[in-house]
Specification:
Structural class: alpha/beta
Helix content: 10-25%
Number of strands: 9
Distance between the termini: 23 Å
Shape: globular
Largest sheet: 7 strands, mixed
Strand order of the largest sheet: 3-4-5-6-7-8-9
Length: about 200
């Protein structure tokens, strides 16, 4: 399991426990202690530019422009993304991020897939996030064969969905429209949360 940063919507201890305490978990430097205190036994830390092997796949940590600490008094670790390479495929998982100068370097060799966040968890976005248009800018910089919008429609403040229901469903479609203009060579695949995609 690749954890991009320590925010509760990216590192939810009960959700991880449901997958098993012995699962291998990779976190940014500074994040392992939190998981070890929670009883996880196979936790590894990684920093930007560092790689590790997962079977025949190589995972490399990338920069991210996002505050990754866990609350104002919790554990501290930077936010990171990941490039995963293996079996002739190369994908980028951005985690939470805004655009950053090193992003262009991730485009070579060519990415088969980019998982790009297009929203946050509430009705507005703070710093360190991509909205649908900035995510389309990222797609134009990265030029993957396929871009999948992520980080939308799954976590929202209680009852707010009654007042702003479109915020749960609009971001990936706004990204699709923006990408058609800003990155027309990139194929966008909008997946419902939990759906899969085969890279043929």
């Amino acid at each position: 399991m690749l954890i991009s940063h320590l925010h509760h919507d990216h590192l939810d201890v009960p959700s991880l426990r449901s997958l098993g305490a012995d699962r291998r978990i990779v976190v940014p430097h500074g994040g392992a202690a939190l998981l070890r205190r929670a009883g996880f036994r196979s936790v590894e830390e990684i920093g930007v530019g560092e790689s590790l092997a997962v079977g025949e796949v190589t995972v490399t940590a990338t920069p991210a422009a996002h505050d990754g600490r866990r609350g104002p008094w919790g554990d501290r670790a930077p936010a990171i993304g990941y490039v995963v390479e293996g079996a002739g495929r190369r994908l980028y998982f951005a985690g939470d991020t805004d655009l950053f100068p090193e992003m262009a370097a991730l485009a070579r060799p060519r990415l088969d897939l980019a998982l790009l966040p297009v929203w946050g968890w509430g009705p507005t976005l703070g710093t360190g996030h991509l909205d649908p248009t900035r995510a389309a800018d990222a797609a134009a910089i990265l030029r993957p064969r396929v871009a999948v919008p992520i980080h939308w429609g799954t976590f929202f403040p209680v009852t707010l969905h009654h007042f702003r229901p479109r915020a749960l469903v609009d971001p990936p479609h706004a990204f699709t429209r923006a990408a058609a203009t800003l990155a027309p060579e990139v194929r966008v695949e909008v997946l419902r949360p939990g759906a899969g995609l085969a890279l043929d």
